[in-house]
Amino acid sequence: MRVFLALLRETSRHLIECGCSSNRVEQLMMRLGDSWGFEVEALAIPTGVWISVRRGGENLVELTRVRDWKVDLDRLARLNELIEHFHGHRISMEEAQQRLEAAASAEPPYDKIATLLAGAGTSPILIYTYGGPAIEAMLALPLGIVVQILQKYVFVGENRRYLGDFLSAAFVAAYACVAKQIFPEVDVPRLAVGGIVVLVPGLVMVNAVHEVAQKNLVSGAAKLLEAMVITASLGMGVLFVLGVFYKWA
Q1: How far is 42 from 22, CA to CA, in rounded Å?
Q2: Residue 95, φ and ψ in degrees, nearest 5
């Protein structure tokens, strides 16, 4: 029973760390309990998970703190696959624990070059979709690469997260303003939006709305506030540079 509870604790922590919604974490833990003959209750919030496991007259309750948050869809997919195998009794508890540790420590599926190229392609595609000229799409190509470098390799860590969003957005706006001086046909707001699109907290916002809809008001409000703070950091970074540019241009 304690082994099962320890497995649930680690699984729920990893799920929240890589961006899974609290409501889904609770449902998955209860599904696993039903599958293995335990009565499980779970309460998940962005900073921790309480799990209760009962069988017969024995009841165990433990709290797991969560201190690291990021969007990692590949890791989330691996965890979901692991849970499905464990739920279907296709693997044992010991094997599930080993695979959980392997999934948590696995390297990203794409190398640095592929990651930078993905960021480089996102911005031009958005600008092209918005009807931007070819020159803007070309200018957005290196912009997407630099933004990825800033976010993934320069402003790393929770203590530098919001500062990184502000400075990354300010760089994007400054880049757009300089490009406007060199190429008058460039639309500054459109190029700036194309540059910061990879920074917009889309998954966080979707999870927040989902949590509120499922009556998980604590988790939903926390994630909604997080999304608003990130968006505000991006907006202030862009507005600061644009304000200076339009005042002195």
Answers
A1: 10
A2: -65, -35
Distance between CA atoms of 35 and 29, rounded to whole angstroms?
10
Contacts of 90 (CB under 8 A, 6+ apart): none
pTM of the model: 0.80
Beta strands in the chain (DSSP E): 39-45, 48-55, 58-65
Classified as helix, coil or strand, 51 is strand
Compute the distance between CA of residue 5 and CA of residue 32 in angstroms, rounded to an integer.
11
Give CA–CA dist 23/15, Å, rounded: 11
Q: Are 194 and 145 in contact (CB under 8 A)?
A: no
Q: Terminal CA-to-CA distance of the chain, rounded, Å?
A: 69
Contact 100, 10 (CB under 8 A): yes
Query: Could you tell me where the beta strands, DSSP code E, fall in 5-47?
Result: 39-45
Residue with tokens 């480089």: 120
Alpha-carbon gap, residue 95 to 216, rounded angstroms = 32
Q: How far is CA 75 from the centre of its chain?
A: 11
pLDDT tens by residue, the chain, 249 residues: 889 999 999 999 999 998 888 889 999 999 999 999 999 999 998 889 999 999 988 999 999 999 888 888 888 888 999 999 999 999 999 999 998 888 877 777 777 788 778 777 888 888 888 888 888 888 888 888 888 888 777 776 655 677 888 988 999 999 999 999 999 988 888 899 888 888 888 888 888 888 888 888 888 888 889 889 989 999 999 999 988 887 776
- What is the C-alpha to C-alpha distance for residues 106 and 114, in angstroms, rounded to an integer? 17
Main-chain phi, psi angles of 60, to 5 degrees: -120, 135
